[in-house]
Amino acid sequence: MEEDIIHRIFASSPEDDDFLPKTVEDIFNDFTGRRSGFIRAFTTDAARFYSLCDPEIMNLCVYAHPNGTWEVNSPVEVLPPNLPQPVLGINFAIDGMQFHDWLSFVAVHSDCWLLSISSFFSANARLTRHDRNRLFDLINNLTTLSEVVTIHHAIQTLFQVMTRSAYYRR
Q1: Which residue in 162, 166, 155 sits closest to 44, CA to CA?
Q2: Nearest CA to 84 among 75, 92, 93, 74?
Q3: What pTM did the predictor assign?
């Protein structure tokens, strides 16, 4: 069971069980796939994501996969050495925070996990300084998950205000 979870989290290609990204392009594709999964969880699937974060269950984590999917699951008991651990306990603060604040909190920690996964793959691939800089530039040109959540919330709020004002003008 744990080996299956580890494989789902860290396998970067469904076609090859032992594939670890070894080039800047492979690592960046892994990053963008996982980022897409988080974006889906925090925007389109936000209500479902929230409902899966039961505060009664200990130490839930959110994982995003290279194929753009995501899951909420308990942490793996023992990760292989050097593998970055996702943030534990995303569900602890769920009762004491506003929904958007909680989602922003989880997004910030997910940003950190994405960067740590990319750093792990970079070190594993023994990228040169030039390649690491190129990877950083590619990643840095994307909006962070935290920014996506904030922008999405602002758009939703604006839409609600516009809808209400249109309703009252009738």
Answers
A1: 155
A2: 75
A3: 0.83
Structure confidence by residue, pLDDT tens digits, 154-169: 777 666 666 666 555 6
Place of tokens 């996990």: 113
Neighbours of 166 (CB within 10 A): 9
What DSSP string describes 73-86?
EPPPSSPPTTPPPP
Find the helix or strand (DSSP H, E) in which 61 lies: strand 61-64
* Domain chopping of the chain, boundaries: 2-169
CB within 8 Å of 62: residues ≥ 6 apart: 38, 41, 49, 70, 71, 72, 86, 87, 90, 106, 110
| Helix%, strand%, coil% for the chain, nearest 5 | 60, 5, 35
Which candidate, 95, 112, 114, places its Cα nearest to that of 53?
95
